[in-house]
Request: fold
Amino acid sequence: MTFPGLLKQLCETALNTAFPGKTAEIAPEFLEITEATQEKYGHYQFNGAMKLSKLLHENPRSIAEKLMSALNTLAATNAFIAKMEIAGPGFINFTLDPTFIAKTLAEQLHDPYLGVEKPAKPLKVIIDFSSPNIAKEMHVGHLRSTIIGDSLRKILTFMGHEVLPLNHIGDWGTQFGMLIAHIKTVFPEIAQANPPDVALGTLVSWYKASKKRFDEDPIFKKSAQQEVVALQQGEENSKRIWEHICAISRKAYQTIYDLLEVQLIERGESFYNPLLKPLVDELEKSGVLTISDGAKCIYLEGFTNREGEKLPMILQKTDGGYNYATTDLAALRHRVQIEKADWIIIVTDAGQSLHFQMLFEAARKLAFYDPARVRINHVPFGLVLNSDGKKIKTRSGESERLIDLLQTAIEQAQQKLLEHNPSYPPEAIGEAAHILGLNAVKYSDLSCHRASDYIFSYEKMLKFEGNTAAFLLYAYVRIQSIQRKANLDITDLLGHPTSIVLEDPAEISLGLLVCQFRTVIEQCAKELLPNRLADYLYRLAEKFHLFFHHCRVEGSSKQNSRLLLCEAVAQVLHQGMRLLGLQPLDKM
Ligand code: ARG
Reply:
């Protein structure tokens, strides 16, 4: 159990003793336990007395006093808590017993899940992330979605949930009509069974050219529209070309996924296409659609434009075509009713927030899901900016290709490693630079609150000091070298029931932080914020250095206990980095 969870239980029991018969009305949030704001106040704080005051018609300080006397009568209190103190208007400050922390730490050391408890019933979670669009380059927004989504996937999987990572790629729509019509004229070879290789860049340029022709040339427009019909009807030739177009794009995305070591299951928009017509027909029959200017729409309470007019969610356009929203509505229903998801998470840029709010509200209104049973979250994120605070662009004004961005990070990581250590072994530097470069890109993204924009800077993300990937890697590497120096087999040490003794304040504080891993993982999942984990790992690395500065490990009388403490830190750093999608290094 987490420390706050434990304290909460204690307080609940004590409240029953202190205020018999009155606790039925006490809401769980009254029992909130928070971390102490400063170590001098102890480890945790109970600040519910103020909230309880109204309910119990008593002043907060006297509530805190009664609660504390009741706590003192509990055996568990004596086992877990070294010190309790009332502060200010009625806070109770708790300092945990170092022996209890050490015991928890020892248990965590032997637990592959590092104290994180399995859920009573694992949830089936669908995470929709990455999701680039065919015939377009992946942009930094897709990079963010990929990095954030993958981390959430790893965290929830680690917690014991069953996660289905879906790549909802944009592989369907009327734009394919003009693209196919255009390619047929400029590259007829595409219709062959095995057409020559085409780069994504070429495909993108065809896409742009086809759009231009569509807008300017009525004859081309006509043939593009015919292509849409042919594709919809599953005409062999059109379908083959469409498949080739998808394959070209897929290959380019795969290079990026391989570099980032991200695995996804492709479930693009085309998958849901057969569901769209039946869905709209069904909704039309049940009378929930409104025809507005020939388009079939749903109107939802509470969604208006600036003029106060109701916003429509358009499910079928005047020309008969379906929308992004139509596919998403069908997808949501499929995920709940067919996939039996308990939790759906969709990771996209914050620009799509309104779309998802409307989507979820529509699905709720149509009773496609039961909000009491299924949790649905849009996980929005901010922009990636360059140092001028503008969107990242190349010199020629094109948006920067992801693959170039990642490659540059790797090159710069190599320079940085050489600056740091001019005699870096040449045989190892390539791999280290690869790991450091990609870790740096991922970490600089995940370490900031996802809702805010952040500035992409190779210089900053590759620093060895501060809240960076290199700083975490370095802390982990340092522990490896301490262990090597001590010349003791850690597995041996772990095999013997060596007790960990926490005495020095730096030891206690580090031990406590290591045990808080489970709390942080819970928080991450609750708020879907990987930066909570990043912040925690950064604090852990800092605290580890502080400990190492204060407490001798090698050759001290407490060597074995301290080596185990170091090992516990290493385990958490290692697992924590993995959950952020980072790869640890043993040497640097
Ligand atoms: N393809 C979309 C884009 O590039 C993202 C799709 C996100 N997922 C979804 N179910 N709408 O912005």
